[in-house]
Design brief:
- This protein has one domain.
- The chain contains five helices and three strands; from the N terminus they run E-E-E-H-H-H-H-H.
- Strands 1-3-2 form a three-stranded mixed sheet, with helices on one face.
- Helix 1 packs across helix 2 and helix 1 runs antiparallel to helix 4.
- The longest helix is centred in the middle third of the chain and has 19 residues.
Length: 113
Amino acid sequence: MRVVFNKFLPFKGFTAMAIYPLIFIRSEFKSFQNSERWDILILHEKIHFEQQKELLLVFFYLWYIIEYGIRLVIHRNTYLAYKNISFEKEAYQNEREMTYLSTRKRFSWLKHL
């Protein structure tokens, strides 16, 4: 895992984005380092790493985009569509459980569909 600070990825309004094996973090959040918020952020992205490995990266993003589109039609709200993507639901639900990755079962995101 390597953290890359920049002002382009992820898009404005988001803090971080995982593209295995990199975590892109917007430069304005560099101050989060060495804080509890940082640990939560990194764990959230590491959960996405596991999801990406399970779906061989390409299929993760394909599924992510398709599910986002479906959720957008259902919720008619971009934020609600994002928060209800199964990958995000798993990551948000478990981002504060620092031992989660050691006990996580493969394809755990499926129970959030």
